[in-house]
Amino acid sequence: METIGHLIGGQLSYQASRTQDVFNPATGAVAKQVAIAPKATVEEAIAAAQAAYPAWRNTPPIKRARVMFKYKELLEQHADKITAMIGAEHGKICHDAAGELQRGIENVEYACGAPELLKGEFSKNVGPSIDSWSEFQPLGVVAGITPFNFPAMVPLWMFPMAIVCGNTFVLKPSERDPSTALFIAELLHEAGLPAGVMNVVNGDKEAVDTLLTSKDVKAVSFVGSTPIAEYIYSTASANGKRCQALGGAKNHAIVMPDADMDNTVNQLLGAAFGSSGERCMALSVAVAVGQEAGDTLVAKMQEAMAPLKVGECSDKTNDFGPVITQEHKDKVVGFIDSAEAQGATVVVDGRNPVIAGYENGFFVGATLIDNVSKEMDSYQQEIFGPVLQVVRVDTMEQAMQLINDHEYGNGTCIFTRDGEAARYFSDHIEVGMVGINVPLPVPVAYHSFGGWKRSLFGDLHAYGPDAVRFYTKRKTITQRWPSAGVREGKSFAFPS
Amino acid sequence: METIGHLIGGQLSYQASRTQDVFNPATGAVAKQVAIAPKATVEEAIAAAQAAYPAWRNTPPIKRARVMFKYKELLEQHADKITAMIGAEHGKICHDAAGELQRGIENVEYACGAPELLKGEFSKNVGPSIDSWSEFQPLGVVAGITPFNFPAMVPLWMFPMAIVCGNTFVLKPSERDPSTALFIAELLHEAGLPAGVMNVVNGDKEAVDTLLTSKDVKAVSFVGSTPIAEYIYSTASANGKRCQALGGAKNHAIVMPDADMDNTVNQLLGAAFGSSGERCMALSVAVAVGQEAGDTLVAKMQEAMAPLKVGECSDKTNDFGPVITQEHKDKVVGFIDSAEAQGATVVVDGRNPVIAGYENGFFVGATLIDNVSKEMDSYQQEIFGPVLQVVRVDTMEQAMQLINDHEYGNGTCIFTRDGEAARYFSDHIEVGMVGINVPLPVPVAYHSFGGWKRSLFGDLHAYGPDAVRFYTKRKTITQRWPSAGVREGKSFAFPS
Amino acid sequence: METIGHLIGGQLSYQASRTQDVFNPATGAVAKQVAIAPKATVEEAIAAAQAAYPAWRNTPPIKRARVMFKYKELLEQHADKITAMIGAEHGKICHDAAGELQRGIENVEYACGAPELLKGEFSKNVGPSIDSWSEFQPLGVVAGITPFNFPAMVPLWMFPMAIVCGNTFVLKPSERDPSTALFIAELLHEAGLPAGVMNVVNGDKEAVDTLLTSKDVKAVSFVGSTPIAEYIYSTASANGKRCQALGGAKNHAIVMPDADMDNTVNQLLGAAFGSSGERCMALSVAVAVGQEAGDTLVAKMQEAMAPLKVGECSDKTNDFGPVITQEHKDKVVGFIDSAEAQGATVVVDGRNPVIAGYENGFFVGATLIDNVSKEMDSYQQEIFGPVLQVVRVDTMEQAMQLINDHEYGNGTCIFTRDGEAARYFSDHIEVGMVGINVPLPVPVAYHSFGGWKRSLFGDLHAYGPDAVRFYTKRKTITQRWPSAGVREGKSFAFPS
Amino acid sequence: METIGHLIGGQLSYQASRTQDVFNPATGAVAKQVAIAPKATVEEAIAAAQAAYPAWRNTPPIKRARVMFKYKELLEQHADKITAMIGAEHGKICHDAAGELQRGIENVEYACGAPELLKGEFSKNVGPSIDSWSEFQPLGVVAGITPFNFPAMVPLWMFPMAIVCGNTFVLKPSERDPSTALFIAELLHEAGLPAGVMNVVNGDKEAVDTLLTSKDVKAVSFVGSTPIAEYIYSTASANGKRCQALGGAKNHAIVMPDADMDNTVNQLLGAAFGSSGERCMALSVAVAVGQEAGDTLVAKMQEAMAPLKVGECSDKTNDFGPVITQEHKDKVVGFIDSAEAQGATVVVDGRNPVIAGYENGFFVGATLIDNVSKEMDSYQQEIFGPVLQVVRVDTMEQAMQLINDHEYGNGTCIFTRDGEAARYFSDHIEVGMVGINVPLPVPVAYHSFGGWKRSLFGDLHAYGPDAVRFYTKRKTITQRWPSAGVREGKSFAFPS
């Protein structure tokens, strides 16, 4: 059975304190093993990154960018291989995996603009014949810790920009689907990246803590659940590192009475059930304003959900795949159970899907729950499964209050045709990423990704312009040349 | 005896758990009392700020900026009063206090540009007929905690920008010289600021901890010593706030053999002894490269220091004043003693200055110490007094290594005529603010202030462009209008 | 009778080849004379500006900006005097003149941000140890030629930004209402501007041509009618100057069936009749989509226009004042006549207003014309009077085609509640300034003003960010220091 | 014999009013024919571009950018073919042609950043609930007219950025070496560009005038000689187009007494003789400050020039190739003759090089002329050949005056080690592109290229950030939503 190892200083390594099973979630079978790095291996990766840093830092930004130009080509050439890798370990359908990869590549494209993005500000004559300017210099070694749900995209949010800014990198991907990150890291060398600039270690909490406490790691980017994000942020901060830690979400869509309802339903289908709802931007709550909008929405959703197909990743006719583990399946089903028990109406029930030939897979079918209320466990917590809950309210103000009261503030959306409603919503909602008739308002790669409230810890958002700022530190130089030596023909003897 | 109180919701308040002496450092006498706020008073200030927030947030940026335009006028009108206030409690000479105030006003001037500074980025067609843009929205209530050494300037680094970005503010100034902050805060109301937007509380650790743990305080800016900065940063971070905490410094100047030596000496005088060296940007170590440069530097410094006058703040012929307290004087003298004991040469000795009529003042004279080495206590720690130490090295690389090895990385400078030396230095030195023949490379208000290493905790620097980013949070909106209703003449009936 | 002169090198001058009458348009009487500068006087002004240039260019931007901070204070202090001046010569009502002045002051406020706005871009390591940066240096002497309709605002669009960028300025204001420009130019000196940096000459075509052909004038900003704008642009261009020349307009509002009709009517009143329609952004054509919208609009407009009062400037109860001259009154009335003759319906007729006590004033009352069509003279040309014409169409596409077919493309607006209609309109309309429910979409001072098609000749718009670019030229410096002389301790003897 | 045709609407076309010889300048033989387009053919190209415009304009910027990503790959894949094409018609040595292509590709790389570069500015709350933002929309059809000396690079300065901004393009390359432009234009289609977005026409003045006067061409970019640039600029401007026209140059290097002389000589060799001096940034005048610097410079240059080899393009050991035509060779030789006749000293004489096997080629050898003075014809005019002239002066001020007095202001350089001299020079020299120890200070692709004085007509420089601004027009939208219809549950019936 194949074992997934580490990439350190340009070489594969298989050092392990232990190994851990990697499942195929569609079959439920163990497919591979992943090497769990001991502390020394993580330190070795950090040391490799530190050793590669001085030369990489001094490489002109345009040359660093050209590695990314080539890297984009290579990712596109290997797209089928990568999407198959994602499918085999994560379970998402190939077209969805292709979408994930494409979103990741967009961050590589943005990183190609490094020479533009790294420009500092130059001020002539801040005083008489005194000039001042800023430079954005790299930090050194930076680390990324990434989740299972986007094994290609989330790493690609981080390392292309970190690297193109002149840093070197240590990535700890999710140990549940580790192959993809390792493969795309190796491709960087084919693109011309010097050995040691990019390193990957697989591991568990020991690896994480080694990264968080190493004096040579200058910054940490994290994406995962809120409790872990909070731990990462406070630990990294207390260890003198800069940190951005992205956590959980509960993304609501307000459905207004004037919404184009067919479009709304069509949008919600993908946003709620795509990738089995295992997305931090998954649209998991629809808040219908008014009795009629709610009734129409539920009726049309029920109808639209009927043909949805859940199944194995390589079959393109499937709409979404299994969830990541049996434990997670149990948790999702438990939330549906609890909603039912607490008085909600399960309109479409995906608790017991039958997938011929994949009876042991971790499948949950698309589920629609109506009459959900604020107090229910399924409302308060992140389900991370293919479950759309409908909450009924009378007014838009009530809908907005619901959202603003939730502990998370990642994404949200309003469906309406009305300019005023859209503007009022986007202005006053306490959420970092807002959609107007866009249910998954993930910012494009040239903007930045980040939630508010307990969905993100840190000052700066992920990728885009904020990433440039996160992965560099400002240096300000003030310069005056005091005497007109050679210009006025004076001879200054050097001490001999 | 006058008691200095608080400013809460536009009203002066004198609630106190106790009062504390405020000295006139030139006479050594207790001049005033300051009210130390109990927890409840700090919470009242936070509540006042929270109450003022919604209306202030919705005030257009140009109207917020106009308060700052008017505020600049008022600060200039009251400059003499403010500089006298600073002198009476801090001790710095009036021309130095005027310089401090001017530097503070420059931040008000920068804040007047809020409409320009708050612009977000707009992207047309991120997809077909989909647009996306970013907004920089205020955070809510933010707090500033400021040190004794710049009682006007450091608060002015913070609250003008925080307020103009739409936040409301609670300032806790140093309890050693609290009058100035209170006075300039009151002036804001004369400039048209609504009550509650700006609040001041005097207090001690209880006040600080109340600010750091309040759920309604969204961000904290701090300037002070490194141990406190580290405490502030980790506590604020662990409480879910964004934080920037600026700490101590040890600022070196490299004196190259080709430097214009008369200019160098002239620059060092002000940079080392101005404001009694109680500046986080004070130039406290000169690193002379080569025997001849060192000998010349020490000889010329000794000569130039002879006429320096230390004394009371209102006498413009004085060059600098007392240090802030008797304890601090003892500490500074102790560092000189230790350097001498550890083998350095005290070339000019300021330990026992005689200031006629001010025999009980906290005065230390300008002191020059040669042959200082890396191991000495006086080298490793921040003295914060009018003491310039000279270290001798053979090469520029040695000089740079010395600087890069120090725990602090606030400011530094090189004196040279050589373009290559200057560029190499500014590129490779691990310090946030770099001067080329500029011994106090404090960035102008339209750049940002921040050290590296243990001189600053946080991602973003103080004032300037970084302050805009620190005092706002990014929201990204993605918008699509799905159907051409009214444009194509379709009639959509609203639910009735 | 008072004669209005010139301001040259800080001194008033009354050199004149002839003088010309300045009228009070409310009474129709000649109120003052204006000196018409001969060529030599204009050359003297250019020479004064040229002489002042080197010192002003080298003045740090922050010091130049501080003149503008003070200037803003002074303009506000003298606001009543300035609005009275505008009223006496232009005729607009005092509240309207106050609005004009305020809009002008906003450009002074923006100019205060010069240190931020003039920042160049700094690129470290464009090659190994090679840096490159841009600087935006002033041009030298620049000229402004401004129209009668905004005697304060349009000059304030130009000279504050030109001056704060380091240029010196020669202004030729309209000879019909020349007092205001002269007065506000003099105020600059009180604000601390050195003599010669700002100069004003009154004159006619000879003055204009002298400016356009002088080798020392580096740029020309013009606002006026399209034929003159075209002449100015081609002449200045052929003489090697940069030029921006803003011309005429025909600003349409589309009124959609879903518009909030009461708000629409309320907005149109001010946009069509304010300042007698003598604004390049006046809303002079309403395009109603659908029979019902058109009928409702005309009926409500007719009703809303009934209480409108035309009269003398100092009476605040008046809504608007006279037009600028008798000739212009005749022209406006002629357009109404022609529309009527060509088949349009004059719904509200302002051709013969009776203004008690001002029987000789140049008054035209608010006029509403329905059923206007594309072929009519009154549609094709700019009326520049208090006349709103209504065109009826069946679809939004027809309305947009009408606008896109017109030779002008200055401003336009749509009234709707529908997000999709607004977005489609703003994307596809061939007009430079677009309002969504904003009938006078004049960009705020921190954006830029400019029409498309034959409404503007030149690459860059007026005021705001574009003005910074217009009034400066880019210099790009690339720097490498080839040998590590002093750093490596090498001794380089200078030739002696 | 091969005939070079046009590319119109994605198809090759050979319409011709006549054909013209294309020479191989190394052999002097006619190698190909080029079709000279009649007016109708040019109009056809404009029409094809106009037809392709609406769809291309509406293509999202990221999709337009992806064509450029692919295009970069293709240009790199075909690099050998392209450099051979350049060599065959222009004569430059293959390594020099490769450098040209690389510089061109850098502009493609920059164009890949279109989504970032096209961002507009978004202002929330310019008034209460009113927002305003800017968009940079494409112009329509734009034209480029390019010179013989960089048959790949100068077209690549223009069309990638114009196209990525959403415009469609008509290129008229030099008819002396037309193959390269046609080939690289064809490659665009392989990269995915829709037919008609890019078009190429070969032609003469008739073609140029057709482009300059067509109402459908919205902007013209030109690079060539100053008299033609001036004609292009004034004609295009008078025809209502935006235009940037880059003309001639006379680029001086000041050699200071403290310069690293070996480095200086080494730099000057390539800068003066590379590409036979047929570059608008060629360094053609060295101004030596002081007798000793001048003597050393001339002696070392003479020595360094001895091994220079002139010859055929495919031989990599050659340093440079022939000039473009026999007429041009005669002109260059004539300038050397005239300098000699007017009193200068021809130190190294390249007038009669013997190139075995290429006796009829248009070769001129590297030439060094000392003691040149301001009055000589060879100093006043652009030679555009492999000729370096040395002027002797006593002071840096004299050297700078010489440069500032010249009609051209394209590029310049100073060789010095002294920071003050470099800063004074770069600040006060009236030249657009300045080098500090960089003899060819061509800005990198992410800065912009442009001279001052009579070296450039227009407001905006070529390529880089200025190109984005040149190839787009600003639209400013101001938006308010007047009534809270659907949000407050009001029912608005549409007219039926």
UniProtKB/TrEMBL annotation, chains A, B, C, D:
Listed EC numbers: 1.2.1.27
Entry-linked Pfam families: Aldedh
EC category name: oxidoreductase
GO biological process: L-valine catabolic process; thymine catabolic process
Aldehyde dehydrogenase domain sequence ranges: 17-477
Alphabetically ordered keywords of this record: NAD, Oxidoreductase
Domain of life: Bacteria
GO molecular function, one term: methylmalonate-semialdehyde dehydrogenase (acylating, NAD) activity
Record Gene3D superfamilies: Aldehyde Dehydrogenase, Chain A, domain 1 (3.40.605.10), Aldehyde Dehydrogenase, Chain A, domain 2 (3.40.309.10)
Name of this protein: methylmalonate-semialdehyde dehydrogenase (CoA acylating)
Organism: Marinomonas pollencensis
